[in-house]
Amino acid sequence: xxxxxxxxxxxxxxxxxxxxxxxxxxxxxxxxxxxxxxxxxxxxxxxxxxxxxxxxxxxxxxxxxxxxxxxxxxxxxxxxxxxxxxxxxxxxxxxxxxxxxxxxxxxxxxxxxxxxxxxxxxxxxxxxxxxxxxxxxxxxxxxxxxxxxxxxxxxxxxxxxxxxxxxxxxxxxxxxxxxxxxxxxxxxxxxxxxxxxxxxxxxxxxxxxxxxxxxxxxxxxxxxxxxxxxxxxxxxxxxxxxxxxxxxxxxxxxxxxxxxxxxxx
Length: 265
Ligand code: ADP
What we know:
This is histidine kinase. The protein has helices spanning 26-61, 68-100, 112-122, 124-130, 149-167, 219-224, 231-241, and strands spanning 3-9, 18-24, 108-111, 133-136, 144-147, 172-180, 190-197, 245-251, 255-263. By secondary structure, the protein is of the alpha+beta class.
């Protein structure tokens, strides 16, 4: 615990007393450290692809000057690195937008069944590339919620895309919607949307930190998969704005289930 102590005299000429004021600044210092860590992380994440691009430019201008085949190879890698920077900047903007709107309650009426179907349609190509498969049946509960359609689309896109990416080749991703009369944390009726994969699963030590910005279990693998390390942080912030929450359960060797819990008025 850190304290700031301010020391002041109570009257002008004659000293009647002294006022000692203790202010607990632990949270302020923690917030400040988080902000500094975030800036350092962003700089590092942007610098890595940028350094690679600069290196390839030098090679194309130098040793590979007369080798069109090598130049093509380097250009392809440069393009992939530039796309990575582009995705990172996109995710940073999403995160800052969600934080900015944190206090504004979203008000649109949304049919989650329709929304999930459009996410699955958008991700069909990704599933084909991974040999993955979706298992989704029309829910047998009413699926209307109040929210921000673009943001909820992003939540389910991030989670289902992660299930495909980290589940490995041929993953089965099941999406199940159910209703509970009272969620024990929200203390309200809620819709549960459980996204399960039969991939390698996640070690329990990582679970509490998964939604931290830039937290990855295997940085190399995440980067290879095109991850920015911000996907689950964005999910968490969007769900906070919707007064909902994310629950993660996983068993090594068997798979993971990410459950979105949204209040149902
Ligand atoms: P990234 O951009 O790296 O995918 P995320 O915030 O979406 O970042 O996810 C954080 C980390 O959580 C990932 O790097 C990955 O290691 C792990 N992860 C996320 N979803 C799954 C999943 N379905 N199965 C296994 N690991 C996962």
